[in-house]
């Protein structure tokens, strides 16, 4: 007969696992409680000061208490440390002071005005022919005398005294309501009277009019200077007159 118990598994006995977990939880609680008891920190409670109301003490003069407090009150007098102590403690008896502002007490010396420099003045009389000199009329031939004088070309420097031959049928134009100021050019003229160099110095206030004046000087011819073999440098100033066309620009 064959034994069947040799072919059966040998199972171990059952462990008491269901009791281990509750025991470990109890042990953990006891350890935490012990640590909390050992390392507990107790902060001291602050003791608030008792509330006190303001008190006023009346000391009668001549009493021992008043004589005891007199040195303390004298040492605590703020008037001892005041800069006005030498006047005494009766501040209402201080001498009156009057404040005077610096702009009322001091009168600054003003610099004198600069000397008046006379500006260019337009001639009051119209010229009917060529003018030989510093100023020459270069405007249109027919100008209404009631409207004002015509444009004048004033030569300065080494060009003073030369005669200008104007280009044929030359007309200046500007906007009707624009104020014009004298336009000045620095130029060099050859001994034969040909313009060699032109440099604008001051504008009339209108760029187109400045270009027209520059074109006029470049096309103009000056009288010859036989006494010099080099170019003469001078200034040419346009004093604008009533012959400037003031028609509205398109």
Features of the shown structure:
19% helix; single chain; alpha+beta; two-stranded antiparallel sheet; 4 helices; 250 residues; 7 strands; 5-stranded antiparallel beta sheet; elongated
Task: Describe the structure in your own words.
The protein is an alpha+beta fold and 250 residues long. The protein has 4 helices and 7 strands, in the order H-H-H-E-E-E-E-E-H-E-E. The strands form 2 sheets. A 5-stranded antiparallel β-sheet has the order 1-2-7-4-5, with helices on one face. A hairpin with a 5-residue loop joins strand 4 and strand 5. The longest helix has 19 residues. It is elongated and about 135 Å long. 13% of the residues are buried. About 6% of the residues have low confidence.
List the helices and strands and how they pair.
Elements: H1 20-38, H2 64-75, H3 102-105, E1 135-137, E2 152-157, E3 164-165, E4 183-189, E5 195-202, H4 207-219, E6 221-222, E7 232-239
Antiparallel strand pairs: 1-2, 2-7, 3-6, 4-5, 4-7
Quick overview:
With 250 residues, this protein is an alpha+beta fold.
Number of strand elements: 7
- The proportion of residues in beta strands is 5-15%
Overall outline: elongated
Low-confidence stretches: 121-134
Residue share in helix: 10-25%
The order of strands across the largest sheet is: 1-2-7-4-5
- Please, how many helices? 4
> What is the CA-based Rg, rounded?
57 Å
Largest sheet: 5 strands, antiparallel
How does the helix and strand content classify structurally? Answer: alpha+beta
